[in-house]
Here is the input.
Amino acid sequence: MLEDTLKRMKKAQTFLANASNDLKNRALDAVAEMLNKNRDNILKQNGLDLENAARENLPDPIIKRLKFDNQKMDVVIDGIRGLMRLEDPANKVIFKRELDDGLILTRLSVPIGVIGVIFESRPDALVQIATLCIKSGNGAILKGGREAAHTNRILADLIVKAITDVDKLFADTVFLIETREDVAEIITFNKYISLIIPRGSNEFVQYIQKNSTIPVLGHADGICHVYFDRTLDLDKAVKIAVDSKTQYVSVCNAAETFLVHKEIAGQLLPVLNKALKAKGVNVKGCARTKKIIPDIEDATDKDWKTEYLDYIISIKIVDTIDDAIDHINTYGSGHTDAIVTLDNDSARKFRELVDTANVMVNCSTRFSDGYRYGFGAEVGVSTNK
Here is the structure.
């Protein structure tokens, strides 16, 4: 049965790949309206998932990620409207070149095909992924975390109904799978699926990469840093630190390590420690850090390699900006790293020498985000080269 569905999806994706931007936008508008009209039903199903999570005593970060309330609904719908305002990314002429008289070479952007996305227990991610695929002309196979099963089911049903009401040819462009057995099966169908995007732990990504012949867009851990330079605005530094760590702890662009220049450590660390503790953060530190703020745990070499995804931060004092850059390039995952400084030369040096995909200057790591960048949202993150 799954193979029959994938056959239909591959055929439907051909229609989707060539659909006009106006038609795709009408489908997206229908999704936004459908979600808005069915808020109560969606929140009811999410309540069932939250009740199950409470019975299982799941950690607070997972429950926060699982919760799909009106505020998240508003953000998701706003993201869909943002997608509608974007240019059509498909079938754009990238360049045109005359190779010889009357012999024209044209490069076009084209959709990838059918994309299988396996993601964590974040119902808002399901909507973002499905709508991004519609806008870009790709079919979407969706597999969310089991903790969000009720919410994922109603969201997928509503999306499929909305787009099919716009044009029946949208049928079979979005499909939800729900079991690990389904995942194990779909990763073998390289005839129908063009790309797998696994979101989650590094171990899970590696499992998919090792067990599928389908190309995989994977990523390493999100070990993100904020470096506090020797000259900075103290108030701004604390705000950036708190936002980077606590605004949403269970995501890949949350900070896991703070690096502090020795010349600013005495001023910054006591204030920073107080602000972090007020947010419930467990602070760990190197020996030099503990001399300034002794009421914290020891940070070990293991901490520099750890993506906590929780209210935990490790702090290390460094002698120079070069030491900070060396630490980041040794332990970082190449996702997002930030510098807080008043020195333009330090900012330039950090930008040029840190081996990372997203460099933030006097800005929270949480701004590293497809929605914030104006892309509507993001399906998956790749930190490879």
